[in-house]
Amino acid sequence: MLDVKNIYKTFNPGTVNEKTALRGVSLTLNDGDFVTVIGGNGAGKSTLLNAVAGVWPVDEGTISVGGVDVTRLPEHKRAKYIGRVFQDPMMGTAATMQIEENMALAARRGRARTLRPGITRDERDHYREMLKILDLGLEDRLTSKVGLLSGGQRQALTLLMATLQKPQLLLLDEHTAALDPKTAAKVLDATERIVQKDHLTTLMITHNMKDAIVHGNRLIMMYEGNIALDISGEEKKKLTVEDLLAKFGQATGSDEADDKLLLG
Amino acid sequence: MDFLLSFLNSLPGAAGQGLAWGVMAIGVYITYRVLDVADLTVDGSLATGGAVCALLISMGVNPWIAMLAALLAGMLAGLATGMFHTLCGIPAILSGILTQLALYSINLRIMAIGDASAKTKSSLAISVDRHSLLVSSRNIRKLTLENPLLLLALLVAAVIAVLYWFFGTEQGSALRATGSNSNMARAQGINTDRSKVLGLVVSNGLVALAGALLAQYQGSSTIDMGRGAIVIGLAAVIIGEVLLSGVFRNFALKLLSCVIGAIIYYAVITLVLRLGLETTDLKLLTALVVAVFLTIPYWKGKYFSKAVKPARKEENTHA
User: Fold this and answer.
1) What pLDDT digit, counting tens, does each position of B37-68 carry?
2) Are strands A34-38 and A202-205 parallel, antiparallel or unpaired?
């Protein structure tokens, strides 16, 4: 479903701020894979997701989603195949627009925007039903401005919007990191339900090792712009945090795992 | 008592100016509020609208067609700014300034078209006696259908109705989303560059239409009729917001509040002129009015409201 081949990305090349964030990353996701991504700060997790989403072009390598080569497509054209939730709750929704307007925009992802009405009555009923799934009371606030919602409510809404049009690939960039633990758990729970229900191919970055182990069928750990560990199947099911730290040490030949991962 | 009478006597004129500038203010609202871009093209495109309309009317063209041509000319100006910004990567403010500057030369040429004795002209007169004008300040006190207030009000209503419809469509919603959060818009598959260009095109079309109305209203188009137009437009938008944002929440009413802001602006201008200020002092006054109205909400937020609590970061309880 996702095929990343040997991608490289260097930021600010030729300056003192030069930073090579991706060094030949290759990754293939099968249909229905739910992959969690961990790694310290600067390991390249978010850069990998942004490369796939097309926030900027990669220096080398190819990216294809669902068999379509998207390497040269701009961000808004890739959106046809990709649903995204960002780390910053402010980023995924339009604050000055209503909840239903945000959802109507998301429902038209990947389609031509015409001069037909931006939202119809049937849609409203549908959105109300969808919002009930979140169990946050948003179904009674369809015409509220999104700016009035809490960070957790906005993340949950963004998640719903990302999956309203079933995406070929769902990208979650630490989407619970800015939330308090209770809300984070709730949003993560909604994520699990939606991914299972729609059988979505998902790439989820998290800072929380426990979450990375509990969720998904495959776990990858990034280190210095590449994939250091790739664990799936039975091995992933039996994984513990201690295993993970030990494996990381073996794979990278360093014992900085504790600092890099725990403090990251 | 004399003073009051003469002030009241000049109010219809202020209303006429306000309505015409209201169309311009709606254009400014689209860029400044909906798209979140400060577009300085308008100083040039207002004069372009006036020049095109005055030229065509002086050639005997039907005034409706002249206004349509002015609208299209303004849209072209917006397209130029949009291309500078999105295709060439020039910051929005600078893109607007570039187009505005270029339009100065173009407007001088437009007004001289068809005149064998001059290559450029800085003004072009159109008289209600010799040409058919849709709106003229000459008729402002007549109680007939020729009174410009009637047609101006109908035009304003039509503009608001069309925009209300447009911003409710898929295209219009995409444009609003672009202004509200361009990251979100792109993630939802919206071509934000195209949205910005479209917004600038629509906005400058309206501004040029206002220029066409003003040229007819005052009986001439001049090269500097748009000087400081952006500030007058902003003044109208902001006065409307400060006074009416509590009551007017619907999008159509927000557009209407720009027009009401423009009318209030001209009523105030009329008043201070009666109090003895010179017309040349008005730019200073307008700049001060806008500065004050922009300052009020900022200071209100800074000194008179409780600080918003920052979002709590998840504690690091990983292992």
Assistant:
1) 999 999 999 999 999 999 999 999 999 999 99
2) parallel
Interface test with B, best of A55, A85, A113 (most B CBs within 10 A): A113
Q: Write the ipTM.
A: 0.91
Q: Which residue has the higher pLDDT, A102 or B249?
A: A102
Rounded average pLDDT over A123-136: 91
Return the domain boundaries, chain B. 2-303
Under an 8 A CB cutoff, do B318 and A207 touch?
A: yes
Helix ranges (H only) for B167-281 are 170-180, 182-187, 192-218, 229-244, 251-274
Under CATH, what is the fold of the domain B2-303?
A: ABC transporter involved in vitamin B12 uptake, BtuC (1.10.3470)
Sorted by where each begins, the domain ranges of chain A are 2-93+167-262
Tens of pLDDT, residues A79-110: 999 999 999 999 999 999 999 999 999 999 98
Quick check: B311 contacting A, CB < 8 Å? Answer: yes
Domain A2-93+167-262 has CATH 3.30.360.10: no
* CA A13 from centroid of its chain's CA atoms: 27
Residue whose C-alpha is closest to residue B266's, from B235, B291, B290, B293: B235
B197 vs A contacts (CB less than 8 Å): none
